[in-house]
């Protein structure tokens, strides 16, 4: 924790130097990384920081409302942008995972540009625009961002950035792993729900629908995901499990029997994993009774889903997310 304190002080200094008397926008996702990054920058430049949370239409059930109330308690300025039409429009007809990631990365930046013009539009023209991101070391490595790295997938905040990026990036966590970020978060006194929140990828449910992303499919996945998370929490396993994506195999159908009739619905995959830093992961041995409750409830409560399957692949060879 001594080093964590040092990191905060070092970064506060570096940020003051970088931003000077300028202003910055922070891309807040609701997760621990961007929350900690924002808290550090707020220490450095105070109310010259504006936090922007983008609802891209691919968030989980109730997530935007939750983030709004959690974060308004901690940050002075929070701008919540509803950009669902923009993102989902841009994703129409797109199936390829890397293409999805690039589009989402680009639309995020467009949204932040618009937010920055809206928020700081009246400030002196031509000033440098700073964008604070909660980028971690593993994001950089896996997006192929440094020597000796390979492009596994383009994280929306690194390899997914557009070439014509106008922002100067501020990334105080770029050398840290998530367990370190959590320590920093505790040092800064952030609420433990924020610090210990399970990771959720910036591209959201968009990379958990295998196939084209549509509103109907998002609704189906949102329901299944909410049930799975509820049962995991009820079992008291939130902290033991690193995260548990629910994936909708939207282009696959299988025959089932629900009620007294034949169904031809979609499978979902649940992917509980344990991990230290997301660079490697093991599939989690969830208790059978928890799996049973998740399976029974999803197939009873989500009409379009008639099969629940379990992913028992570690990373490597599988990644945590399916796309
Ligand atoms: P993978 O699927 O590469 O995921 O094993 C490793 C960790 O990173 C999260 N993830 C992302 N987070 N933007 C993010 O902010 C992204 O584009 C992204 N892709 C994956 C994933 O949920 C896991 O925790």
TrEMBL record:
Residues 2-197 form the GMPS ATP-PPase domain. The gene is guaA. Pathway: Purine metabolism; GMP biosynthesis; GMP from XMP (L-Gln route): step 1/1. GO terms for cellular component: cytosol. Homodimer. This is GMP synthase [glutamine-hydrolyzing]. Keywords: ATP-binding, Glutamine amidotransferase, GMP biosynthesis, Ligase, Nucleotide-binding, Purine biosynthesis. GO terms for molecular function: ATP binding; GMP synthase activity. It catalyses: XMP + L-glutamine + ATP + H2O = GMP + L-glutamate + AMP + diphosphate + 2 H(+). It comes from Nocardioides anomalus. Catalyzes the synthesis of GMP from XMP. It comes from the Bacteria. ATP binds at residues 29-35.
